[in-house]
């Protein structure tokens, strides 16, 4: 029996397990498959839930005005890394093309990238080219952070953008289906955010570091977009402060934190068990404990990418050389007997490294508006 002779439902079920990057190449097979991959929100969501996640390291640098994919080779004696070409350009006719955005930040959420600067917000699916520009509103933009999240309603993702400041309790929510901003209550009552730039998304929820009002406990906060409330997520151990902290996601399944209690302690990488969308019962496991050079330390906005199986991390734009300004370098750190055995510097890299999962997920539109795609 050939593929055209198989039942339609069976073909779709098989395609749900094909990696997203491969499905993109199959779009030209026939018009029906092209429509299925481009326009069917039901299939896109089903595929995201069932297909194996292709978790790729993505970096934005001051030398590349569009985020770039990286190829990491861990075979052989000497690990190597190559910064590949830009993942995809945004349409050149847009009023604020990403190549003209100044000092923009990137936030990843389930295959979509939220890119923003002080004047514009872009939500972008690099795999399909679909994008949507959003106005930041009339609020002051200095010190403002934007993150993307969603919740499921009748198995359909409902997207929102959360906006908050590092120096006040002012917070807003943008709803995609109504195309509007609205004020909300303080997102973390009784807590203050330690570093608003260190936020990650996992299964639609946003996670961030926070300090309680008594300044005796550092924890994670999980922001739930269905209730628009924050939930406390304890770290592996209690402390009133850490010398170093950073947050990441592993294969869209687990949280990962980088912690160092003080300068004399090892830098530790912890991961959670796989999380679910309904329950937040987490246990932590330590996967790395590194004795790093005393001349290297994690900077305020440091970010990292964890290869859990091979116990290797990449750390970007967060490392300071002693007595120097922050350098635009990327480090690859491996473990051997709980010690860092290799630290490599890649000249010319910089700002931040992200976990990126290619996806067919479509961007929610305001009622009555058509989607825009960069072909």
Would you give an account of this structure?
Helices cover 9% and strands 43% of the residues. The chain has 375 residues and is mostly beta strands. Strands 4-5-6-7-28 form a five-stranded antiparallel beta sheet, with no helix packed on it. Strands 12, 13, 14, 15 and 16 form a five-stranded antiparallel beta sheet that branches. The chain has a four-stranded antiparallel beta sheet with strand order 3-2-1-27, with no helix packed on it. The longest helix has 10 residues, at 41-50.
Helicity level: under 10%
- Overall mean pLDDT stands at 77
Determine the N-to-C terminus distance.
34 Å
Unreliable residue runs: 91-96, 318-326, 337-344
- What percent strand? 35-45%
Mind summarizing the main beta sheet? Answer: 5 strands, antiparallel
């Amino acid at each position: 029996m050939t593929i055209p002779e198989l039942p339609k439902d069976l073909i779709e079920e098989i395609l749900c397990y094909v990696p997203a990057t491969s499905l993109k190449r199959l779009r030209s097979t026939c018009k029906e498959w092209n429509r299925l991959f481009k326009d069917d929100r039901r299939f896109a969501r089903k595929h995201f839930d069932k297909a194996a996640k292709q978790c790729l390291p993505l970096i934005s640098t001051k030398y590349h005005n569009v985020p770039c994919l990286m190829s990491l080779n861990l075979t052989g004696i000497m690990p190597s890394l190559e910064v590949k070409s830009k993942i995809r350009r945004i349409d050149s006719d847009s009023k604020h093309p990403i190549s003209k955005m100044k000092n923009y930040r990137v936030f990843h959420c389930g295959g979509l990238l939220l890119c923003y600067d002080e004047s514009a917000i872009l939500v972008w699916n690099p795999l399909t080219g679909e994008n949507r520009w959003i106005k930041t509103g009339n609020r002051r933009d200095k010190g403002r952070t934007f993150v993307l999240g969603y919740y499921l309603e009748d198995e359909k993702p409902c997207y929102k953008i959360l906006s908050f400041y590092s120096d006040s309790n002012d917070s807003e929510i943008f709803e995609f289906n109504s195309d509007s901003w609205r004020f909300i209550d303080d997102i973390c009552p009784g807590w203050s955010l330690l570093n608003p730039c260190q936020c990650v998304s996992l299964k639609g929820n946003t996670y961030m570091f926070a300090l309680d009002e008594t300044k005796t406990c550092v924890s994670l906060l999980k922001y739930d977009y269905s209730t628009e409330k924050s939930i406390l997520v304890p770290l592996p151990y209690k402390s009133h402060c850490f010398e170093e902290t950073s947050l990441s996601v592993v294969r869209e399944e687990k949280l990962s934190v980088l912690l160092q209690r003080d300068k004399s302690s090892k830098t530790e990488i912890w991961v959670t068990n796989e999380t679910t969308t309904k329950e937040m019962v987490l246990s932590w496991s330590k996967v790395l404990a590194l004795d790093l050079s005393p001349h290297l330390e994690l900077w305020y906005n440091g970010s990292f990418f964890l290869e859990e199986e091979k116990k290797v991390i990449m750390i970007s734009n967060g490392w300071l050389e002693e007595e120097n300004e922050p350098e635009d370098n990327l480090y690859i750190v491996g473990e051997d007997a709980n010690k860092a055995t290799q630290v490599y510097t890649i000249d010319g890299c910089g700002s931040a490294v992200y976990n990126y999962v290619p996806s067919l997920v479509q961007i929610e539109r305001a009622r009555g508006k058509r989607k825009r795609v960069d072909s």
